[in-house]
Automatic annotation (TrEMBL):
GO terms under cellular component: nucleus
Protein name as it appears in the record: Deacetylase sirtuin-type domain-containing protein
Catalytic residues (positions): H127 (proton acceptor)
Lineage: Eukaryota, Fungi, Dikarya, Ascomycota, Pezizomycotina
Organism: Dactylellina haptotyla (strain CBS 200.50) (Nematode-trapping fungus)
GO MF, one annotated term: NAD+ binding
Cited Gene3D superfamilies: SIR2/SIRT2 'Small Domain (3.30.1600.10), TPP-binding domain (3.40.50.1220)
Family: Belongs to the sirtuin family. Class I subfamily.
InterPro entries: DHS-like_NAD/FAD-binding_dom, NAD-dep_sirtuin_deacylases, Sirtuin, Sirtuin_cat_small_dom_sf, Ssirtuin_cat_dom
Keyword field contains Transmembrane: no
Residue intervals of the Deacetylase sirtuin-type domain: 4-283
Annotated keywords: Metal-binding, NAD, Transferase, Zinc
Pfam families xrefs: SIR2 (PF02146)
Amino acids binding Zn(2+): C135, C140, C182, C185
Length: 283
């Protein structure tokens, strides 16, 4: 069990501590958007039951089978753009409005936190966004932000007869010529503007987080709906602790001795749906 002097599930002690906290960092993962109906990475079900989401979120997967990877991301774009922010997104946005020293570091690419009204200067998307598309040609710097087209090409139109949860339907074999191509250089294949495994995180986002980190001690780190297994994002938990932060984990699954992000212990452990818990503990 973690080394804590109070009941780790006690919301009142958390709320009392939150009241006296200014510099707070929330690290969020796929579990934040689960109640909005978006599959988590570990639970990426449906059409992707036959494929491991982690194995598709890589540059090699895209080179090997751009058709499969584009169908994976097109389905996730369609799901994300149709989803609604849930009470957890709204609670974090409200905290950010109330406290300018609070930042959210999100690993999610679904765009639900911005749509929940989270102040952009206090939201750090370390893994990019599904609504960003960019050219893969080394000679072209085309990038488009905020593209919410449900079908970037006719071949990627949502399949009405097939819900994205239809595990039986195998991905179609879309020819590369029918995949999204760059409107600027016309020859480059477009890709989703997300950070794949093996790719660096956006330098400007990392430096903004580092700047915030260096601004002084940190009172509280909220670890919300994430396995804390993906680095370097998971490293922010330990960095906050080094700056004096207490840690609260909000997760559907809480094992007895969470080793999230190399953290030996957490001060609060709130087990359940963050869409239920966050509005309660952040009010
Ligand atoms: C890099 C975008 C180097 C794409 C994603 C140490 C240091 C640095 C790197 C590494 C390292 N060790 C290993 C690495 C390599 C790798 C890595 O971390 N691998 C892991 C698997 C060990 N990291 C990288 O490759 C990173 N790049 O390091 O580059 C470099 C340096 C210089 C030059 C070149 C290269 C890039 C990592 C980013 C990958 N991209 N996303 C996309 O979305 O398609 S990460 C992706 O997977 C998601 O964004 C997400 O972050 C991650 C899955 O994690 P979770 O968010 O935790 O989601 P998951 O489904 O796993 O879990 C959901 C959780 O929610 C569960 O705990 C569940 O219980 C809970 N939950 C569910 N429902 C609810 C809930 N909780 C509350 N309420 C609910 N309702």
């Amino acid at each position: 069990m973690p080394f804590i002097e109070h009941d780790p599930t006690d919301m009142n002690s958390f709320k009392a501590y939150l009241k006296q906290s200014k510099r707070i960092l929330a690290l969020c993962g796929a579990g934040l958007s689960a109640s909005s109906g978006l599959a988590t990475f570990r639970g990426a079900g449906g059409l992707w039951k036959t494929h491991d989401a982690m194995s598709l979120a890589t540059p090699n997967a895209f080179v090997k089978d751009p058709s499969l990877v584009w169908q994976f991301y097109s389905a996730r774009r369609q799901a994300a753009f149709s989803a609604k922010p849930n009470p957890a997104h709204l609670a974090l946005a409200a905290l950010a409005v109330k406290n300018s020293d609070f930042i959210t570091v999100t690993q999610n690419v679904d765009g639900l936190s911005p749509r929940a009204g989270h102040p952009p200067l206090q939201l750090q998307p370390v893994h990019g966004s599904l609504s960003t598309i960019k050219c893969t040609s080394v000679f072209c710097n085309y990038i488009q932000y905020d593209n919410y087209d449900m079908a970037l090409t006719p071949a990627l139109a949502p399949a009405p007869e097939r819900s994205s949860n239809d595990a039986e339907a195998a991905p179609a074999n879309i020819p590369v010529s029918d995949l999204p191509h760059c409107p600027k250089c016309t020859t480059g294949l477009l890709r989703p503007g997300v950070v794949w495994f093996g790719e660096s995180l956006p330098a400007h986002v990392l430096s903004e987080i580092d700047e915030w980190m260096e601004d002084g001690p940190i009172e509280l780190c909220l670890v919300i709906g994430t396995t804390g297994m993906v680095w370097p994002a998971a490293g922010y938990i330990g960095q906050c602790k080094e700056k004096g932060a207490r840690v609260a984990i909000i997760n559907m699954e809480i094992d007895d001795d969470p080793m999230l992000g190399g953290v030996e212990y957490a001060d609060w452990l709130f087990k359940g749906d963050c869409a239920q818990i966050l509005p309660q503990i952040l009010e």
